[in-house]
User: Fold Imidazolonepropionase-like amidohydrolase from Desulfofundulus luciae.
Amino acid sequence: MSLINLGPGQTLLIKASRIWRGTPSPPQEGLIYVQGGKVIAISAGNDPEEYLCTDHSREPVPVLELPNCTVVPGFIDCHVHLALDGRDFSRAQQQWTARGELLERVKADLTSTLERGIVAIRDGGDRAGIGLEVKQLVITGRLAGPLVLACGHALHRQGKYGSFLGPGLTPGELEKAVDSLARQGVDHLKILVSGIVSFSEYGRVGGPQFTREELQRIVYRARSRGLKVMAHASGDDAVRLAVEAGVDSIEHGYFISEESLHRMAAQGIAWVPTVIPVAGQVRGKLRAQYTAREIEVITRTWRRQVEMIKKALEMGVTLGVGTDAGATGVCHGQGFLEELLLYREAGLSPADILLAATRNGAAILGLEHLLGRIEPGRPAFLVAVEGNPWEDVSALARVKYVFRPARSFI
Assistant:
């Protein structure tokens, strides 16, 4: 994989066998003319002469030929945790106070993410504010990585699940907590509406942490601050509460009901199902730590989630792709293709999967003006893969080039 940072004065003509622009239409052979980190023009066919004919005072435009490759918009992971490494939860937490070691690990994780064509990530928070700090390090150029949107720490009820994600709150502290995060410059808000899914008892989930009225107060305050709200919600009770409160996206959503999906579609609430953090528990080395009963419960859980993804698409719910990278067994960057292949197992077409990984993700992050499509005037966040992912989504594993502007657009 080659990473190409497109500088302010740089021009480049990309000649590819296929270009997929981030629309429901299939890819076509064509040319992309890039200048100053932005897409200037796209044309069908393969004749670059109109772009190469410059006046004698200018340098000729370099041409990058990509035979048997497809250029697509950069991918978006809608749910990660930069403060965790996906390998050792306790060790990752210890690094929070060992800054040098932490930054070395984060640097490697950001590189791994970019190498897989992921050009933007949305961090789901941590108690130490590491995701927010990494965002600033990327913006200032001290770390190389994808665009980072961060929520600082997550909001959860005092004494309930989520102590590693943020300080627990009492009902009287909700608005104050939102205001504090807004002053810190967060990009969105994260609420823990439920606990986590049981691996020993099928269908059991930690119960709701907030009442509907409390969630509505949080969402209302976030809206007044211009912040979107992502809601960690598993168990249909928690999902319903989050939907009634008017959040922007449901994260995880294990044991979601068809009724909740209908409501989400009607209200324009997106779903980020994060299948791989559960499915991955019964794959590879992790499987050995579970009993036969637990393996059965985990397998039933993720397979039900896959079935609901197909139903959500049919109902018109906007699906994003989130890996929960940093969760045990999900290393940064590596889980993205695995998540996409689970969407394929759900019965989604390559076109549906590509849209979820690009255009839908851009909308969920509130970056639809920057990401998710290849169009003149937009920043050139592009990925070239070998093969045709429109026919076989596994081609997305063969990333050849990642293109991105040299400066941040956030």
Notes: The chain has a mean pLDDT of 95.
